[in-house]
Write a structure and sequence with these properties.
By secondary structure, the protein is an alpha/beta fold. The chain folds into 2 domains: 3-52 and 394-415 and 432-448, Urease, subunit C, domain 1 (Roll), CATH 2.30.40; 55-384, Alpha-Beta Barrel (TIM Barrel). It is 32% helix and 22% strand. It is built from 16 helices and 18 strands. The strands form 3 sheets. Strands 1, 2, 3, 4, 5, 16, 17 and 18 form an 8-stranded mixed sheet that branches. It has an 8-stranded parallel sheet with strand order 6-9-10-11-12-13-14-15. The radius of gyration is 21 Å and the shape is globular. The protein binds dihydropyrimidine-2,4(1H,3H)-dione (DUC) and zinc ion (ZN) (2 copies).
């Protein structure tokens, strides 16, 4: 036995109980009361603390080219930040360029990730950029064989799919044991509104929200669900942000369809008002909050919380995609010195370090149970993406990715003082967390000591996803 976490309360998706947790060779080797350390075993006193599985952030964009730049965190700095927030696995999006086979592209991205040296484990979702030929579509099977069984299509953006390509991707995924995620927004209406607002000289970040409003997202959520039903395939709606979409997911799940949804902390905490005002008390401007999809109104925020409580929403992830303040300013003056507008702001915000502390803090305040927080931030992610053979729970045989959480510790997010990514600001600045991780282990090795990153660059490795065959709404 290498490590013994003693006297804490273990929290799983289903139950909470007092137990010691033993770790041998990076795996959880025993869970029980009064476990005795062996000679040389490191003992961690967890009295008064919760012992949780490390979170899985199923939605990050590390080192992603976007809008003339590249997101600020790479596979190392992003996973360093993740580790210091109790997230011990990320699933990063890599989107296939037009004309390049997904399997070839995946090989290149796995090499890139390894060269950057992730601090904790990572996996990849394959963004679908080109399924215009049968050959490209058939190549999805190779990607599955390489250990990536999750794909994402975009209903917006130039590289997005039309409904026919979306349908074909769903059918192929069902055949090969994969799950398709979707970024659901109505492209034609979004494009029309962007043109209209720009022609009316309405160029501020508020019009980013207006052109991607509740109805633009809600219609696409409903259509995506209909396409999945037509294909008889499971579907995963990423970053669900609106009440209409929550209702559509609830209905499809009640009918027995394997429709799953993810939401993100930003949709549970902020509202569209940030695009008018920013958060000036923390020197955050409206453009700093520009991400896609944008935050919505209070009705949607409330519906998302209800969706978490009643099981309509299965997972919580971040869409972590950080850009520097000077890049966020491209909405005023572009990189080339031209007059900017809301479409010239790189889309995305930081969050990978904040997800677990945020949702656990909400649990600590009584908004949801700790079991629910663990379920949506760790256990369900592992099950949905075929990683439950090694991740997502405190269970004998699984990787010892463990968070010791102090419900009494208070941390106010301060980008300069207590955040560990590469970004020069965070939209989470000034947010107070009631409770915080005081120790984080990846494969039984300490990576966060409650203050600093103490892990190693390159310690993380690629986690293969098993084939998945989700047949109904539960798993
Ligand atoms: N949304 C973002 O905010 N950034 C990157 C891609 C996306 O869909
Ligand atoms: Zn997206
Ligand atoms: Zn995203």
């Amino acid at each position: 036995m290498d490590l013994l976490i003693k006297g804490g309360k273990v929290v799983t998706a289903k139950s909470t109980f007092k137990a010691d947790v033993a770790v041998t060779n990076g795996k959880i080797s025993a869970i029980g009361t009064n476990l005795k350390p062996e000679a040389g075993t490191e003992v961690v006193d967890a009295k008064g603390k919760l012992v949780l599985p490390g979170a899985i952030d199923g939605h990050t964009h590390m080192a992603m080219p976007f809008g003339g730049t590249i997101s600020t965190d790479d596979y190392f700095t992003g996973t360093r930040a993740a580790a210091c927030g109790g997230t011990t696995t990320i699933i990063n999006f890599e989107t296939q360029p037009v004309g390049v086979k997904m399997s070839k592209f995946l090989k290149e991205k796995l090499e890139l990730a390894e060269s950057q040296g992730p601090a904790v484990d990572y996996s990849i979702h394959m963004g679908v950029g080109d399924v215009t030929t049968q050959e490209m579509l058939d190549d999805m099977a190779k990607v599955v064989d390489m250990g990536v069984t999750s794909f994402k299509v975009f209903m917006v953006y130039d590289f997005g799919v039309d409904d026919g390509q979306f349908y074909a991707t769903l059918c192929k995924a069902k055949e090969i044991g994969a799950l398709v995620g979707v970024h659901a927004e109505n492209k034609n209406v979004n494009d029309y509104l962007v043109k209209k607002y720009l022609s009316e000289k309405k160029i501020s970040p508020w019009y980013h929200y207006m052109s991607k409003n509740e109805a633009v997202a809600g219609e696409a959520d409903e259509r995506a669900i209909n396409l999945a039903k037509m294909a008889g395939a499971p579907l995963y709606i990423v970053h669900l942000d609106n009440a209409q979409g929550v209702a559509a997911v609830a209905k499809a799940r009640a009918e027995g369809y394997p429709i799953f949804a993810e939401t993100c902390p930003q949709y549970l905490y902020f509202t569209k008002e940030v695009y008018k005002d920013g958060r000036p008390e923390f020197k955050l401007r409206p453009q700093d909050f520009v991400c896609s999809p944008p935050m919505k109104g209070k009705e949607s925020k409330d519906a998302l919380w209800d969706g978490i409580r009643n099981g309509v929403i299965s997972t919580l992830s971040t869409d972590h995609c950080p850009f520097l303040k000077k890049e966020k300013d491209w909405g005023k003056k572009t990189k080339d010195g031209k007059k900017g507008n809301f479409t010239t702001i790189p889309n995305g915000c930081a969050g990978v370090e904040n997800m677990y502390p945020f949702i656990l803090s909400e649990a600590n305040k009584g908004k949801i149970t700790f079991n629910k927080a663990v379920e949506i931030a760790a256990t369900n992610q592992a099950k949905l993406f075929g990683m439950d053979y090694c991740k997502g729970a405190i269970e004998v045989g699984l990787d010892a990715d463990i968070v010791v959480y102090d419900p009494k510790k208070r941390v106010v997010i301060n980008n300069k003082k207590n955040q560990h990514g590469a970004l020069d600001h965070t939209v989470w600045e000034g947010v107070e967390c009631k409770g915080y991780p005081c120790a984080v282990f990846s494969h039984g090795k300490l990576v966060f000591d409650g203050k600093d990153f103490v892990g190693k660059q390159g310690a993380g490795s690629f986690v293969k996803q098993k084939k998945v065959h989700h047949k109904g709404p539960s798993f």
